[in-house]
Protein backbone atom coordinates (compact mmCIF):
# COMPACT_ATOMS: atom_id res chain seq x y z
CA UNK A 1 0.00 0.00 0.00
CA UNK A 2 1.42 3.38 -1.02
CA UNK A 3 1.83 6.24 1.45
CA UNK A 4 -0.75 8.41 -0.38
CA UNK A 5 -3.32 5.63 -0.51
CA UNK A 6 -2.81 4.83 3.21
CA UNK A 7 -3.37 8.44 4.30
CA UNK A 8 -6.28 8.90 1.88
CA UNK A 9 -7.95 5.74 3.24
CA UNK A 10 -7.45 6.94 6.85
CA UNK A 11 -9.08 10.27 5.96
CA UNK A 12 -11.95 8.45 4.29
CA UNK A 13 -12.58 6.13 7.27
CA UNK A 14 -11.96 8.63 10.06
CA UNK A 15 -14.88 10.49 11.62
CA UNK A 16 -14.75 14.18 10.86
CA UNK A 17 -14.47 16.67 13.72
CA UNK A 18 -17.08 18.79 12.00
CA UNK A 19 -20.24 16.77 11.52
CA UNK A 20 -21.19 19.13 8.69
CA UNK A 21 -18.26 17.87 6.55
CA UNK A 22 -19.30 14.28 7.25
CA UNK A 23 -22.86 15.14 6.23
CA UNK A 24 -21.69 16.64 2.91
CA UNK A 25 -19.57 13.53 2.25
CA UNK A 26 -22.59 11.28 2.92
CA UNK A 27 -24.76 13.43 0.65
CA UNK A 28 -22.09 13.19 -2.05
CA UNK A 29 -22.13 9.38 -1.89
CA UNK A 30 -25.95 9.30 -1.93
CA UNK A 31 -26.08 11.85 -4.78
CA UNK A 32 -23.72 9.81 -6.97
CA UNK A 33 -25.65 6.63 -6.09
CA UNK A 34 -29.06 8.12 -7.01
CA UNK A 35 -27.70 9.63 -10.24
CA UNK A 36 -26.10 6.37 -11.40
CA UNK A 37 -29.17 4.34 -10.39
CA UNK A 38 -31.53 6.70 -12.26
CA UNK A 39 -29.31 6.63 -15.35
CA UNK A 40 -29.14 2.81 -15.40
CA UNK A 41 -32.92 2.36 -14.97
CA UNK A 42 -33.93 5.01 -17.53
CA UNK A 43 -31.40 3.87 -20.16
CA UNK A 44 -32.42 0.21 -19.58
CA UNK A 45 -36.11 1.07 -20.07
CA UNK A 46 -35.35 3.07 -23.22
CA UNK A 47 -33.16 0.24 -24.58
CA UNK A 48 -35.97 -2.20 -23.79
CA UNK A 49 -38.50 0.00 -25.58
CA UNK A 50 -36.23 0.28 -28.63
CA UNK A 51 -35.60 -3.49 -28.66
CA UNK A 52 -39.31 -4.28 -28.28
CA UNK A 53 -40.23 -1.88 -31.07
CA UNK A 54 -37.51 -3.34 -33.28
CA UNK A 55 -38.76 -6.90 -32.68
CA UNK A 56 -42.34 -5.93 -33.48
CA UNK A 57 -41.37 -4.16 -36.70
CA UNK A 58 -39.02 -6.93 -37.86
CA UNK A 59 -41.65 -9.52 -36.99
CA UNK A 60 -43.83 -8.04 -39.73
CA UNK A 61 -41.31 -6.62 -42.18
CA UNK A 62 -38.24 -8.20 -43.73
CA UNK A 63 -34.63 -7.20 -43.08
CA UNK A 64 -33.92 -6.42 -46.74
CA UNK A 65 -36.22 -5.67 -49.70
CA UNK A 66 -35.03 -6.27 -53.28
CA UNK A 67 -36.68 -4.13 -55.97
CA UNK A 68 -36.19 -3.55 -59.67
CA UNK A 69 -35.91 -0.32 -61.67
CA UNK A 70 -38.80 0.33 -64.13
CA UNK A 71 -39.00 -3.15 -65.67
CA UNK A 72 -41.55 -5.68 -64.30
CA UNK A 73 -40.07 -8.09 -61.75
CA UNK A 74 -40.78 -11.31 -63.69
CA UNK A 75 -37.86 -13.69 -63.08
CA UNK A 76 -38.35 -13.64 -59.32
CA UNK A 77 -38.03 -17.42 -58.80
CA UNK A 78 -34.45 -17.48 -60.13
CA UNK A 79 -33.65 -14.34 -58.14
CA UNK A 80 -34.93 -15.96 -54.92
CA UNK A 81 -32.71 -19.01 -55.52
CA UNK A 82 -29.67 -16.79 -56.18
CA UNK A 83 -30.25 -14.62 -53.09
CA UNK A 84 -30.71 -17.61 -50.74
CA UNK A 85 -27.21 -18.85 -51.67
CA UNK A 86 -25.59 -15.61 -50.42
CA UNK A 87 -23.77 -15.98 -47.10
CA UNK A 88 -25.78 -14.59 -44.17
CA UNK A 89 -29.20 -14.95 -45.83
CA UNK A 90 -31.74 -17.20 -44.07
CA UNK A 91 -34.65 -17.04 -46.50
CA UNK A 92 -36.23 -15.00 -49.29
CA UNK A 93 -39.81 -14.71 -50.54
CA UNK A 94 -41.59 -12.74 -53.32
CA UNK A 95 -44.32 -10.23 -52.50
CA UNK A 96 -46.80 -7.83 -54.08
CA UNK A 97 -47.65 -4.53 -52.40
CA UNK A 98 -50.71 -2.45 -53.33
CA UNK A 99 -53.35 -0.07 -51.99
CA UNK A 100 -56.92 -1.45 -52.03
CA UNK A 101 -60.34 -0.99 -50.45
CA UNK A 102 -62.05 -3.60 -48.29
CA UNK A 103 -65.85 -3.69 -47.92
CA UNK A 104 -67.84 -5.69 -45.43
CA UNK A 105 -71.50 -5.65 -44.44
CA UNK A 106 -70.62 -3.17 -41.69
CA UNK A 107 -68.40 -0.70 -43.54
CA UNK A 108 -65.55 0.08 -45.88
CA UNK A 109 -61.88 0.80 -45.24
CA UNK A 110 -58.66 1.43 -47.11
CA UNK A 111 -55.94 -1.20 -46.68
CA UNK A 112 -52.44 -2.18 -47.71
CA UNK A 113 -52.67 -5.41 -49.69
CA UNK A 114 -49.71 -7.77 -49.45
CA UNK A 115 -49.61 -10.72 -51.82
CA UNK A 116 -47.38 -13.46 -50.37
CA UNK A 117 -46.16 -16.93 -51.22
CA UNK A 118 -47.69 -19.15 -48.47
CA UNK A 119 -44.89 -21.71 -48.75
CA UNK A 120 -41.98 -19.32 -48.13
CA UNK A 121 -43.46 -16.25 -46.40
CA UNK A 122 -43.43 -17.84 -42.92
CA UNK A 123 -39.63 -17.97 -42.93
CA UNK A 124 -39.43 -14.19 -43.55
CA UNK A 125 -42.56 -12.75 -41.84
CA UNK A 126 -42.27 -14.67 -38.57
CA UNK A 127 -45.48 -13.37 -36.96
CA UNK A 128 -47.71 -14.41 -39.86
CA UNK A 129 -49.33 -17.85 -40.29
CA UNK A 130 -49.05 -17.82 -44.07
CA UNK A 131 -50.02 -21.52 -44.38
CA UNK A 132 -53.64 -20.39 -43.91
CA UNK A 133 -53.48 -19.02 -47.48
CA UNK A 134 -52.23 -22.22 -49.14
CA UNK A 135 -54.26 -23.25 -52.16
CA UNK A 136 -54.98 -26.66 -50.63
CA UNK A 137 -57.02 -25.07 -47.86
CA UNK A 138 -59.91 -23.81 -49.94
CA UNK A 139 -63.11 -22.56 -48.43
CA UNK A 140 -66.40 -23.67 -49.86
CA UNK A 141 -69.49 -21.59 -49.19
CA UNK A 142 -73.03 -21.77 -50.49
CA UNK A 143 -74.11 -18.93 -52.77
CA UNK A 144 -76.92 -16.87 -51.22
CA UNK A 145 -79.05 -16.81 -54.39
CA UNK A 146 -78.51 -20.47 -55.31
CA UNK A 147 -77.73 -22.60 -52.23
CA UNK A 148 -77.15 -25.70 -54.35
CA UNK A 149 -74.23 -24.11 -56.19
CA UNK A 150 -70.93 -23.98 -54.34
CA UNK A 151 -68.24 -21.39 -54.99
CA UNK A 152 -64.57 -21.57 -54.01
CA UNK A 153 -63.65 -18.39 -52.20
CA UNK A 154 -59.95 -17.51 -51.68
CA UNK A 155 -58.70 -16.66 -48.18
CA UNK A 156 -57.46 -13.41 -46.70
CA UNK A 157 -55.67 -12.58 -43.42
CA UNK A 158 -56.54 -9.22 -41.87
CA UNK A 159 -54.83 -7.07 -39.27
CA UNK A 160 -56.61 -7.18 -35.89
CA UNK A 161 -57.58 -3.48 -35.87
CA UNK A 162 -58.64 -3.59 -39.52
CA UNK A 163 -60.86 -6.62 -38.86
CA UNK A 164 -62.28 -4.85 -35.81
CA UNK A 165 -63.09 -1.70 -37.84
CA UNK A 166 -64.88 -3.78 -40.46
CA UNK A 167 -66.50 -5.94 -37.72
CA UNK A 168 -65.15 -9.15 -39.23
CA UNK A 169 -64.14 -12.43 -37.65
CA UNK A 170 -62.74 -15.74 -38.92
CA UNK A 171 -65.06 -17.26 -41.52
CA UNK A 172 -66.71 -13.93 -42.46
CA UNK A 173 -66.66 -12.68 -46.04
CA UNK A 174 -65.21 -9.41 -47.30
CA UNK A 175 -65.01 -7.77 -50.74
CA UNK A 176 -61.64 -6.56 -52.00
CA UNK A 177 -61.88 -3.60 -54.39
CA UNK A 178 -58.85 -3.10 -56.62
CA UNK A 179 -58.05 0.11 -58.58
CA UNK A 180 -56.87 -2.13 -61.46
CA UNK A 181 -60.30 -2.57 -63.03
CA UNK A 182 -61.57 -2.33 -66.58
CA UNK A 183 -62.69 0.32 -69.04
CA UNK A 184 -66.40 0.48 -69.81
CA UNK A 185 -68.69 2.83 -71.74
CA UNK A 186 -69.28 4.74 -68.51
CA UNK A 187 -65.57 4.94 -67.64
CA UNK A 188 -63.11 3.05 -65.44
CA UNK A 189 -64.70 0.41 -63.20
CA UNK A 190 -62.62 -1.00 -60.33
CA UNK A 191 -62.57 -4.78 -60.02
CA UNK A 192 -64.10 -6.49 -57.00
CA UNK A 193 -63.49 -9.95 -55.59
CA UNK A 194 -64.92 -11.80 -52.61
CA UNK A 195 -62.64 -13.29 -49.95
CA UNK A 196 -63.17 -15.23 -46.74
CA UNK A 197 -61.28 -14.25 -43.58
CA UNK A 198 -58.95 -17.16 -42.78
CA UNK A 199 -57.07 -15.52 -39.94
CA UNK A 200 -56.59 -12.39 -37.83
CA UNK A 201 -53.07 -10.99 -37.75
CA UNK A 202 -51.79 -9.21 -34.62
CA UNK A 203 -48.35 -7.59 -34.46
CA UNK A 204 -48.98 -5.28 -31.50
CA UNK A 205 -48.47 -2.12 -33.60
CA UNK A 206 -51.47 -0.14 -34.79
CA UNK A 207 -49.71 0.96 -38.00
CA UNK A 208 -49.69 -2.67 -39.18
CA UNK A 209 -52.76 -4.10 -37.44
CA UNK A 210 -54.94 -1.25 -38.69
CA UNK A 211 -53.93 -1.45 -42.37
CA UNK A 212 -52.35 -4.77 -43.39
CA UNK A 213 -54.12 -7.53 -45.32
CA UNK A 214 -52.51 -10.67 -46.80
CA UNK A 215 -53.64 -12.86 -49.67
CA UNK A 216 -52.08 -15.59 -51.82
CA UNK A 217 -49.50 -14.27 -54.31
CA UNK A 218 -51.33 -15.81 -57.30
CA UNK A 219 -54.62 -14.16 -56.31
CA UNK A 220 -52.82 -10.82 -55.89
CA UNK A 221 -51.29 -11.15 -59.37
CA UNK A 222 -54.76 -11.72 -60.89
CA UNK A 223 -56.47 -8.91 -58.97
CA UNK A 224 -53.71 -6.38 -59.68
CA UNK A 225 -53.37 -7.64 -63.30
CA UNK A 226 -49.61 -8.12 -62.90
CA UNK A 227 -49.30 -11.34 -64.88
CA UNK A 228 -46.33 -13.33 -63.58
CA UNK A 229 -44.50 -10.35 -62.02
CA UNK A 230 -44.14 -9.22 -58.41
CA UNK A 231 -43.34 -5.98 -56.59
CA UNK A 232 -40.12 -7.33 -55.08
CA UNK A 233 -38.44 -9.90 -52.85
CA UNK A 234 -38.22 -9.83 -49.07
CA UNK A 235 -35.09 -11.23 -47.42
CA UNK A 236 -34.43 -12.36 -43.85
CA UNK A 237 -30.81 -12.51 -42.62
CA UNK A 238 -28.95 -13.95 -39.60
CA UNK A 239 -27.45 -10.73 -38.25
CA UNK A 240 -29.77 -7.72 -38.58
CA UNK A 241 -26.89 -5.31 -37.97
CA UNK A 242 -25.11 -6.55 -41.09
CA UNK A 243 -28.10 -5.75 -43.31
CA UNK A 244 -26.29 -2.99 -45.22
CA UNK A 245 -23.26 -5.18 -46.04
CA UNK A 246 -25.43 -8.12 -47.14
CA UNK A 247 -27.63 -5.77 -49.21
CA UNK A 248 -24.50 -4.58 -51.02
CA UNK A 249 -23.52 -8.20 -51.68
CA UNK A 250 -26.98 -8.89 -53.13
CA UNK A 251 -26.81 -5.90 -55.49
CA UNK A 252 -23.28 -6.90 -56.51
CA UNK A 253 -24.43 -10.46 -57.22
CA UNK A 254 -27.62 -9.55 -59.12
CA UNK A 255 -26.35 -6.41 -60.85
CA UNK A 256 -28.43 -3.75 -62.60
CA UNK A 257 -31.46 -3.12 -62.63
CA UNK A 258 -31.83 -4.51 -59.07
CA UNK A 259 -31.56 -2.34 -55.97
CA UNK A 260 -32.18 -2.88 -52.26
CA UNK A 261 -33.47 -1.23 -49.08
CA UNK A 262 -32.56 -2.50 -45.61
CA UNK A 263 -34.65 -2.18 -42.42
CA UNK A 264 -32.43 0.59 -41.01
CA UNK A 265 -32.98 2.64 -44.16
CA UNK A 266 -36.75 2.11 -44.13
CA UNK A 267 -37.10 3.12 -40.45
CA UNK A 268 -34.21 5.58 -40.18
CA UNK A 269 -36.33 8.45 -38.79
CA UNK A 270 -37.89 6.35 -36.05
CA UNK A 271 -34.68 4.75 -34.76
CA UNK A 272 -32.74 8.01 -35.12
CA UNK A 273 -35.35 9.73 -32.93
CA UNK A 274 -35.09 6.94 -30.33
CA UNK A 275 -31.30 7.17 -30.33
CA UNK A 276 -31.43 10.97 -29.94
CA UNK A 277 -33.93 10.65 -27.08
CA UNK A 278 -31.69 8.12 -25.33
CA UNK A 279 -28.65 10.43 -25.69
CA UNK A 280 -30.60 13.46 -24.39
CA UNK A 281 -31.86 11.50 -21.36
CA UNK A 282 -28.28 10.39 -20.63
CA UNK A 283 -27.06 14.00 -20.68
CA UNK A 284 -29.96 15.29 -18.55
CA UNK A 285 -29.65 12.59 -15.89
CA UNK A 286 -25.85 13.00 -15.78
CA UNK A 287 -26.58 16.41 -14.22
CA UNK A 288 -27.65 14.55 -11.05
CA UNK A 289 -24.15 13.06 -10.83
CA UNK A 290 -22.73 16.51 -11.59
CA UNK A 291 -24.58 18.01 -8.60
CA UNK A 292 -23.16 15.22 -6.41
CA UNK A 293 -19.70 16.01 -7.81
CA UNK A 294 -20.04 19.60 -6.56
CA UNK A 295 -20.79 18.15 -3.11
CA UNK A 296 -17.58 16.08 -3.34
CA UNK A 297 -15.64 19.20 -4.26
CA UNK A 298 -17.22 21.14 -1.35
CA UNK A 299 -16.46 18.41 1.19
CA UNK A 300 -12.82 18.21 0.01
CA UNK A 301 -12.38 22.00 0.20
CA UNK A 302 -13.71 21.99 3.76
CA UNK A 303 -11.48 19.03 4.61
CA UNK A 304 -8.41 20.89 3.27
CA UNK A 305 -9.32 23.77 5.59
CA UNK A 306 -9.79 21.35 8.50
CA UNK A 307 -6.59 19.37 7.82
CA UNK A 308 -4.29 22.38 7.37
CA UNK A 309 -2.00 21.34 10.24
CA UNK A 310 -1.87 17.73 8.98
CA UNK A 311 -0.86 18.90 5.52
CA UNK A 312 1.81 21.21 6.99
CA UNK A 313 3.27 18.38 9.11
CA UNK A 314 3.30 15.97 6.14
CA UNK A 315 5.10 18.56 4.00
CA UNK A 316 7.57 19.30 6.81
CA UNK A 317 8.31 15.57 6.98
CA UNK A 318 9.17 15.63 3.27
CA UNK A 319 5.91 14.87 1.47
CA UNK A 320 5.94 16.38 -2.03
CA UNK A 321 3.15 18.51 -3.50
CA UNK A 322 2.35 15.62 -5.83
CA UNK A 323 1.77 13.29 -2.84
CA UNK A 324 -0.52 15.78 -1.06
CA UNK A 325 -2.49 16.25 -4.28
CA UNK A 326 -2.80 12.49 -4.70
CA UNK A 327 -4.12 12.01 -1.12
CA UNK A 328 -7.14 14.28 -1.69
CA UNK A 329 -7.74 13.02 -5.21
CA UNK A 330 -7.83 9.46 -3.84
CA UNK A 331 -10.34 10.43 -1.16
CA UNK A 332 -12.61 12.03 -3.76
CA UNK A 333 -12.30 8.97 -6.00
CA UNK A 334 -13.17 6.71 -3.03
CA UNK A 335 -16.36 8.72 -2.46
CA UNK A 336 -17.19 8.51 -6.17
CA UNK A 337 -16.38 4.79 -6.32
CA UNK A 338 -18.58 4.01 -3.32
CA UNK A 339 -21.48 6.03 -4.73
CA UNK A 340 -21.05 4.55 -8.22
CA UNK A 341 -20.85 0.97 -6.89
CA UNK A 342 -24.00 1.40 -4.79
CA UNK A 343 -25.74 3.08 -7.76
CA UNK A 344 -24.82 0.27 -10.16
CA UNK A 345 -25.95 -2.38 -7.67
CA UNK A 346 -29.27 -0.69 -6.83
CA UNK A 347 -29.91 0.17 -10.49
CA UNK A 348 -29.34 -3.43 -11.63
CA UNK A 349 -31.56 -4.79 -8.83
CA UNK A 350 -34.35 -2.34 -9.74
CA UNK A 351 -34.07 -3.28 -13.42
CA UNK A 352 -34.35 -6.98 -12.54
CA UNK A 353 -37.43 -6.30 -10.41
CA UNK A 354 -39.05 -4.29 -13.24
CA UNK A 355 -38.21 -7.02 -15.75
CA UNK A 356 -39.45 -10.07 -13.86
CA UNK A 357 -42.23 -8.75 -11.61
CA UNK A 358 -43.68 -6.08 -13.94
CA UNK A 359 -45.32 -4.11 -11.10
CA UNK A 360 -45.61 -0.95 -13.25
CA UNK A 361 -48.55 -1.27 -15.65
CA UNK A 362 -49.25 1.04 -18.58
CA UNK A 363 -52.75 1.82 -19.89
CA UNK A 364 -53.62 -0.44 -22.85
CA UNK A 365 -55.65 2.25 -24.62
CA UNK A 366 -52.66 4.64 -24.70
CA UNK A 367 -49.57 2.42 -25.21
CA UNK A 368 -49.07 -0.66 -27.36
CA UNK A 369 -47.26 -2.30 -24.42
CA UNK A 370 -48.78 -2.98 -21.00
CA UNK A 371 -45.59 -3.08 -18.89
CA UNK A 372 -42.25 -1.27 -18.94
CA UNK A 373 -39.83 -3.13 -21.24
CA UNK A 374 -36.38 -3.43 -19.65
CA UNK A 375 -33.15 -4.40 -21.42
CA UNK A 376 -30.05 -4.07 -19.26
CA UNK A 377 -26.94 -3.95 -21.44
CA UNK A 378 -23.46 -4.39 -19.98
CA UNK A 379 -21.99 -1.69 -22.25
CA UNK A 380 -24.53 0.90 -21.02
CA UNK A 381 -23.77 0.08 -17.37
CA UNK A 382 -19.99 0.35 -17.99
CA UNK A 383 -20.35 3.70 -19.79
CA UNK A 384 -22.57 5.13 -17.02
CA UNK A 385 -20.16 3.98 -14.29
CA UNK A 386 -17.19 5.33 -16.24
CA UNK A 387 -18.90 8.70 -16.81
CA UNK A 388 -19.72 8.97 -13.10
CA UNK A 389 -16.14 8.18 -12.07
CA UNK A 390 -14.70 10.73 -14.54
CA UNK A 391 -17.03 13.46 -13.19
CA UNK A 392 -16.05 12.57 -9.61
CA UNK A 393 -12.36 12.65 -10.53
CA UNK A 394 -12.68 16.09 -12.16
CA UNK A 395 -14.39 17.43 -9.03
CA UNK A 396 -11.28 16.58 -6.94
CA UNK A 397 -8.74 18.48 -9.05
CA UNK A 398 -9.34 21.99 -7.63
CA UNK A 399 -9.38 21.15 -3.86
CA UNK A 400 -6.43 18.74 -4.26
CA UNK A 401 -4.43 21.45 -6.07
CA UNK A 402 -5.21 23.97 -3.32
CA UNK A 403 -4.00 21.49 -0.69
CA UNK A 404 -0.78 20.85 -2.64
CA UNK A 405 -0.02 24.59 -2.88
CA UNK A 406 -0.38 25.11 0.88
CA UNK A 407 2.73 26.68 2.50
CA UNK A 408 3.69 24.51 5.53
CA UNK A 409 5.25 27.44 7.48
CA UNK A 410 2.16 29.61 7.09
CA UNK A 411 -0.09 26.64 7.84
CA UNK A 412 1.73 25.83 11.11
CA UNK A 413 1.89 29.51 12.15
CA UNK A 414 -1.79 30.33 11.51
CA UNK A 415 -3.26 26.80 11.65
Helix/strand layout:
Blueprint: H1 3-13, H2 19-60, E1 64-68, H3 76-84, E2 89-103, E3 108-116, E4 139-142, E5 150-153, E6 155-159, H4 160-165, E7 173-184, E8 187-201, H5 206-209, E9 212-216, H6 217-223, E10 232-237, H7 243-254, E11 258-262, H8 263-266, H9 268-306, H10 308-316, H11 321-357, H12 378-404, H13 408-414
Parallel strand pairs: 3-9, 6-8
Antiparallel strand pairs: 1-10, 1-11, 2-3, 2-7, 2-10, 4-5, 6-9, 7-8
Task: Explain how this protein is built.
This protein has 415 residues and is α+β, with helices and mostly antiparallel strands. It has helices at 3-13, 19-60, 76-84, 160-165, 206-209, 217-223, 243-254, 263-266, 268-306, 308-316, 321-357, 378-404, 408-414; strands at 64-68, 89-103, 108-116, 139-142, 150-153, 155-159, 173-184, 187-201, 212-216, 232-237, 258-262. The strands form 2 sheets. The chain has a 6-stranded mixed β-barrel. Strands 4-5 form a two-stranded antiparallel ribbon. It is elongated, with a radius of gyration of 33 Å. The protein starts with a helix and ends with a helix. Mean pLDDT is 81; it is low at 137-150.
Amino acid sequence: MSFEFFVGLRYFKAKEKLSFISLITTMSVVGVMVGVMALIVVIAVMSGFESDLKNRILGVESHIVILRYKEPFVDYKNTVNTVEKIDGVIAATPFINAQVMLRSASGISGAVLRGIDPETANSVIIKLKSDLLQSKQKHESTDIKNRSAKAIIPGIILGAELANNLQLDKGDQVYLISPRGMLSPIGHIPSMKRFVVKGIFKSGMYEYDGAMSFINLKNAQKIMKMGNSVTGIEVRIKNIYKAKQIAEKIVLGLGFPYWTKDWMEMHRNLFSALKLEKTVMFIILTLIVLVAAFNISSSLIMMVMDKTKDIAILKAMGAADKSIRKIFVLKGIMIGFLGTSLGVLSGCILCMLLKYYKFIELPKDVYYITTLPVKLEALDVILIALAAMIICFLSTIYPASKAAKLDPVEAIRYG
